[in-house]
Amino acid sequence: MVIKDEVLRVLKIEDSLVLNSIHNGVVAVDSNGIIVVFNKALQRIYGLSEKEVLGKPVDAVISYTGLLKILETGKSHIGRKFKTNNTIFLTNRTPIIQHGKIIGAIGVIQDITELQNIADELEAVKDLKGTIETVLDAAYDGLIVINRDGIVTMVNKAFANLLGNSQDDIIDKHVADVLKDTKMHLVAQTGNAEIGDLQRINGHDVVVMRLPIQKEGRTIGAVCKIMFKDIHDLNALAQKINSLRSELAYYKGELQKYRGAKYGLDNIVGESREIKRLKETVRKVAQSNSTVLIDGETGTGKELFAHALHMESNRRYGPLIKVNCAAIPEQLLESELFGYIAGAFTGARKSGQVGKFELANRGTIFLDEIGDMSPPLQAKLLRVLQDKEIERLGDTRTRAIDVRVVAATNRNILELIEKRQFREDLYYRLNVINLLIPPLRERQTDLELLVNYFISKLNREFSLQVRDLSPECWLLLKEYHWPGNIREMENVLERAFNVVEGDILERADLPIYFQKAVNEVKKVYRSQSLQTTLEDTEKAAIIAALEATGNNKVRAAKMLEISRAWLYQRMKKHSI
């Protein structure tokens, strides 16, 4: 190989030991681009042996090589970078010239991956430094940093402006020379932070915090940040915060105290035609301010619909005040509804009392068990509905109110009117919109939905995992006529949860009175009328409750979830 010998002679590296000892990769080609030198360093880089490459075209071994361009132009390529196998190389390519003629080319490459990574990191640090400096200048009212010896290493423009100097005039000076009466250098030595300290800077009283800068558990400097440029700003902010806290506490208390609505239409369980129709009616009538009378047997969920009416209305952000007219003694009900002034009667509070109607202003008042209200109170309620104003007990002036009235009863108001126990004019004033809640026995299609709802609720309350009822248990629930309606159903299931042992409710888990009542219903139910069947069911439930409680009327009424007066009335009717 004459050309090879000539190239090696020109390069003066005839000793192959020298060529192969070089750490950098070396490749040389003749004037035709044929490889004549391929040292061991390059063999390692490309994973090829000398025998595999010598005598072959260089572009067949090294893709995208620039050596052919060197042969063509005679111009060197210095400091060119290329990447192969995730490694970055720096290459110098030069022509081999003899007697003014290009007889070959040589390329020397060096692995610079580590150097490139360091360069990239330095560039990233440089960019980050510029970003941090920009942020510190823009984001802080004043910031200055010192090293452990108290020499200023950084200061932002805001702090420099406050001192009346440029940043260059401050950096590299001792902090005590540029900031009088400072304690920064002490923080840098002791490592103890100082928060909220008052310092005077160039005629300004400012609030600062001084924090030590630590590295590997050792204090290497300190930073001082201005928290408030002027002490007056701090005082104003403190006053504003205290005022906002007081307002927030007040409104939270008022909202918690007076806004009593908890349930919306989504909380009313049921997909029967009757319930769907009622929900749609509630959505429509909720938009008006007309009074609403909710009729339905005890336990049907009248209060739920009252809540939903309020939540669907434009008064939803106002209070919902609930009053049980049957639970409050008659002599106290008037003061509860309308309030009283100081000294109105013996035992009255010295400050007087705001009535429920006033508390419900701009909201809704729910008068439950309206059928139990005495005739004198009925007359006063009628006047409130007509005049939209109330008069506190003992007071001589009236107070205007903006209240929507929703009333509910489980009694037959028309029968009470015939007996002169309820004012007819008040009835028509209340009954502008009437919602009749069907009893559970008339919405049997909702029974499974309701049972499953209560099972989920009681599982959470009792931390149990009851998943179903036994077939016999389901049959009993479906055969029962539920005189206490949904409230009674919840009571029955809750009692069962107190004794259940597995994940299935069995018949034995149900209350004894309930099982007896179902059996009694089966005995009396033949082909008799619906009214007779309902009365027989009610009688059987009352008898079973009395037997279960040892004839204790109070406990029996509580078991049936009806008032004691109502129990006596039904016992009298059924001759029990």
Output the structural class: alpha/beta
Mean pLDDT over the residues: 83
Low-confidence stretches: none
Helix proportion: 40-55%
Taken as a percent bin, the fraction of beta residues is 15-25%
CATH class categorisation of the largest domain:
Alpha Beta
Largest sheet: 5 strands, antiparallel
Q: According to CATH, what is the topology of the largest domain?
A: Rossmann fold
CATH architecture of the largest domain: 3-Layer(aba) Sandwich
Number of helices: 26
Please give the number of β-strands.
21
N- and C-termini, Cα separation? 131 Å
Strand order of the largest sheet: 2-1-5-4-3
Number of domains: 4
CATH superfamily of the largest domain: P-loop containing nucleotide triphosphate hydrolases
Q: Looking at the chains present, what oligomeric state does this protein adopt?
A: single chain
Specify the overall morphology.
Answer: elongated
